[in-house]
Amino acid sequence: MSDTATTTATELTEVEQKSLAEIAHPSLPEGSSIYGSTKVFPDYQAEDGETYFTLVHGIAHESSVSFVAVLQATRALRKGFEAAIYFYGPGSLNCLATRGFPTVGNSAFPGEHNINNQLKTFIAEGGKVYCCRFGLSLHGAREEDLIEGVIPTHPLDVQDAIIHYARKGAIINSTYQL
Question: How many Å apart are CA 40 and CA 43, to the nearest integer?
């Protein structure tokens, strides 16, 4: 036992020590499976011409909504779907290349650049990313700060993009978070 562990243990009350000792931690070693692996639905792949369109109205890092939407769109792209993501409202902030602290590109916490990196991957693999200029303007974000390859769009394009992809028969995944 290290000096730090000994010091910490001696600072605990008898009741605290009893509580810690009641259940062994961790109860299972790392790598233990506690969930089954049966996939219930078929692993669908895109048929010729199928499209997957995602709308994101969620702020980066305020929940997992935006990041999961990007991961789902990437998975659809890899299944052969023509895939596009449209960020609007506060979701536009997900498209900023200027994320970082204390300087651009530095991660102040693990995962700060998850969305940036995944969007770059999505674009590199053939996905299209749209970003509403009005959404950017609501938060004082600049168009020149967009991740390379993100396509800026007019505010009236949000509805027309939905119509465009609906007419193509796209699967439309719309995520929303306040």
Answer: 9
